Amino acid sequence: MKYILVSLLFASLLQVFLWLNNDKFITPPDTDEIIESLSYAPYQKGNEKEMLSDEEVIRDLKLLKKFTNTIRLYSAEDSQKVMPHLSALGMRAHMGLWLSGDVEDNEKEIALAKSLVADYHENLISVIVGNEVLLRDDLDPDELIVHIKDFKEFVTLILRVDRDAKAKAIKEEILKEKNRKVRAKKLREAKANAAKEEQRTILVTTAEIWNMWLLYPYLADEVDIINIHILPYWEKIKAENFVAFFNEKYKKIKEAHPTKPIIIGEFGWPSRGYNNQASVASPQNQAMVIRKFLELAKKEGFSYNLLEAFDQPWKGVDEGSVGQYWGIFDANRHLKFELKGNVLVEPFWFMQMVAAAIIGAILTFFGLRNQNINFLHAMTYGLAAQGISFGIVMSAVYPFVHYMNFGTWIMWGMGSILMVPLTLITLAKANELFKCTIGRRPKRLIPLNLKSDHVPFMSIHVPAYKEQPNVLKETLEALANLKYTNFEVLVIINNTPEDFYKTPIKELCKELGDRFVYLDIECTGFKAGALNKALEFTNPKCEVLAVIDADYVVKSTWLVDLIPIFDDEKVALVQAPQDHRDGEESLIKTAMNAEYAGFFDIGMVERNEENAIVAHGTMIMVRKSAFDEVGQWNTDTIVEDSELGLRLFEAGYVGHYTNRRYGHGLLPDTIEAFKNQRHRWAYGAVQILKKHWKHFEPSSKTLTRSQKHHFITGWFFWLSDALGTVTSILNIIWVPVIIFVGVTIPTIALTVPILTAFLVNVIHSFVLYRTRVGANFYHSLLGAIAAMSLQLTIFKAVYDGFVKDNLPFKRTEKGGNSKKSSSSPVKNEIILASLLIGSFIALIMTNHQGIVEVYIFSATILIQSIPYVSAIILRLIEKSSYKKVIIS
Predict the structure, then answer these.
(1) pLDDT per position as a tens digit, 400-414
(2) Of the candidates 659, 646, 563, 564, which has an alpha carbon nearest to the alpha carbon of residue 608?
C-alpha cells in the first residue's frame, strides 16, 4: 500500500505542477477599447438560424455601442431587422445585400435593400453589393458590375433627392424670417451646410477576398472603395506570422490600385474549431491576433471591420466546427477577452487540474490495489494513469467550451462511452507491461523440485468426438508412458457411431492394458455432458481428475512433477499451458502458435500470482472432492472448463499454474477452425459473466478483490475487441457526413486516445513477446497478425453471448478433420477493410484545406482497418501454406 500511496501522491503532484506551470494567461499588446466596425448577425444562439426579437437586437446593439459605433450587416433581411434600432441609437452601418446565383432571389434582395437605403441612408457608411460572390462563383464579374452600377445610381439619386428636399425645406423656413439681417445670416449658413451635404456620400462597393481584386482589377474601377477580406486562418498562416502576411497582401492591393481607398471588410481569427494546417484555432491565438491587429490598424491608419461581434452556433451546420467561433463575444454575449491587460485563455483550468489529479489518483489506487508491486512498477503506472486522466478531462470539458448540435452530441457521447472501456483496457495493458518488465518477478509458478510421499489415484479423462484414430493413438500411447504409477485413463468416445473412429481405439485400449478404459457413450450436453457421463465409470479411489484433449501428447513427467502440489488441501486446480507440436508445419500454424503462446506465457503467469488463473479443458487437474463439492461439469455453458475453475475459486479453493510445457497438441487445421474456437471461448466468457456476475459485486466475498480484478479485466479484453468493430462501423458511417455535409470533424481529444491505445497495444505485444515468450520480431509479428485477425469473430461472439442463449458447441477441427468451406472465411473482414481503407483514402483526397483533425481521424480509421487487413493476410498465408503442402 505504501508504494501505491507514494506513486499516487507523486504522480498527482506532477499533474498539478504541470498545470500550474502551463501558460493560462497571455499578454498581447494593449489596444484602444474602441473598435472601428464589427460584423453583426441578428440570430439566436441555438443551432437553428432563427432571427432575434426586437428586444434582443436592441440589447445587442447597446452592448456593441460600448465598443463601436459601426456594424457591418450582410443581407437586406438582416438590415430590415436591425436598421430601425440602429438608427434610433445613433449608430452607423455598412449595409450589405446578399447576392446569389438565383435571379429571382436577387431581385427581391435588391428591392428590399433599396427601400432600406431610402429610409436609413443617413445611418449608412457604405452599401456592400454582394459578399464573396465571385469567390463562390455565383455571378461573373460583369453581372456583379451591373448590380454595383445600379446601386451607385440609386444612391446618388437618393442623396440628391434628400439634399434637394432638405434645401427646399430650409429655404422655406428662412423666407419666413422677417428680419433681413437674420434672414441673410441664415442663408449663408444654409449654403455652407449645403456644401457640406454635397460632400457626404454613401460608398458603394462589393466585398471579396484580397486576391479577387488582383484577379479582376477592373472591378476596382466600378466601386467607390475596395472592400477586401484578409483572413490568415483560411490561408493556413501561423497566428504569430499573421502581421507579415497581412502587410504583404494589403501592400499588393494598394500597389495594384494606388488611387482607390481600401477598407479591410473582414479580419478575424476563430477561438475554437479544427486546425487548418499551421493555423490553430484557439482562445489564445484569437486574443493575440485581434489585439495585435487593432494595434496595427491604429499605427498604420487603415479602415477595418472585425469578423465578428458574436459567435454564431447555427453556422456549425454549414461551415463546420470552426465557423461558429469567430466572435469576440461568445453566443451568451460574454466578452471572450479584454482589450487591455492579461487574457485568461483556460477558464476551466483549475477544475480541470483538480479533476485530472483526482481521476488519476483513483485510477492508480484501483489499478494497483491488492497487487504484488514494487516501487518502480507503482510509479510508472501512476504516471500513466495521470496521463490517461488528462485525456479524460480534456474530453469531458468539450461540451463546456464548444457549441453542441445533434452531430457533435452523437460524436462526443459515443466517444465518451467508448473511452471508458478503452481507458480501462489501455491501463490494464500498461499495468501488465510494467509488471512484466520492471515489476516483481513471479513467485507462485509451480517449482520443479516438488516431492511427496503421497501418491493419489489419478483418473485421466480423454473425451473424443469423431477424432482421427492416428491422432488419438499418439495421445494414448504417450499416456501409457507416464512415469506416474497410480492412475487410470478413461477414453470417452462420445456420440460417434462410425466404426472408422472407434474400432482402432478400442483395440488399442486392450493392447495398452487395464489402466485404459474404453467408453462408447451417447449423451447430451456436448463435451461437458460426455465428461459427466464418464464420472459414472471413474474409479471410486480417484482423488484427482485430469482432462486432456484427444490430440495432446504429454510428457512422461507430467503427473510426477505436478501431483505433489495437491498435498496442500486448499489446492483444487492445477493447470499446465497449452502448446502445439505442429507449429512449424506451415506458416499459418506458426502464426497461430505464436498467438496462443502470448496468453500462456504472459497473462496466465500474472493471473497465477493473484490466484486467478483461467481453467482450460486440457492439461488440467482437479481435486475430485472439490470437484464434487462445486457440482462437477456444468452443461449450461460451452466453456465448462473455465466455468468450473471460477466455481472452485468462489468456493475458496486455490489454483496453481506452471508455464513449463508438459503436453503438445495440434493446432486448428484452418482459419475457420481457428475462428470457431475463439468464438466459442469469447461466447462462453459472456455466458460465464451472465451467470456469475453477482460474485463480482463489491459486497460479494466469494472472490478476492484481485480475483475480481483479473476476471473483469479479462472480460473487458473481449469487450474491447467487440467495441473495436462497433467504432469501426460508426466511423465508416460518419465519414460521408464529414465529406458531404462538412460538419462535426471528430476532435483530437476523442481520436488521440484510440491512437494511444493502439500504440500501447503494439508496445505491450512486442515487448512482452520478447521478454516473456522469448519470441523474435518475426514470430511476434505473426502472433500479432493472428491475434488482430480475430476482432470481428470476437465481436460476433460477444454479441451472440448477450442476445443468444444455448448456442451449440462447435469442436475445433484438428488433425485433418476439417472440411473445405465453400465460402471465404474472411469475406466480412474484406468488406470492412475495404470500407475503412476507402474511407481513409476519401478523407485524405477531400481534405483540401489540410485540416489536422481530419488527418488524425483518417489515421484512426486506417489503424482500425488493421485487424481486418490482418485477417486477409492470415488467409493469404493459409492459401500459400496449402499450396506448399500440395507441392511437397
Answers:
(1) 888 887 777 887 887
(2) 659
